[in-house]
Amino acid sequence: MVRTLPVEKGTVACLSDKREDIEKCRFCVHSVRFVIPGREIPSPARAFCSMSRATEEVDLKMVISVVCDDIREEGFRTIMNVIS
What we know:
By secondary structure, the chain is of the alpha+beta class. Helix content is 17%, strand content 32%. It has one domain.
């Protein structure tokens, strides 16, 4: 199950009572894809954990929403804890 979080002023409603800068989404284990007009780009954090380990650079100024799989409402969780 995923949620699509609209970007407003460079932030997303990560939790119902907390907004996070989308820069953090690039490093969050819950981010799946970044949506720009007409395309979806795999999250750099998710790509790092996958077999391909590659994705294109995400132009955060063009992102209109972030697809997130945080169904437990943990909020931002850095990929750095997973890879260390």
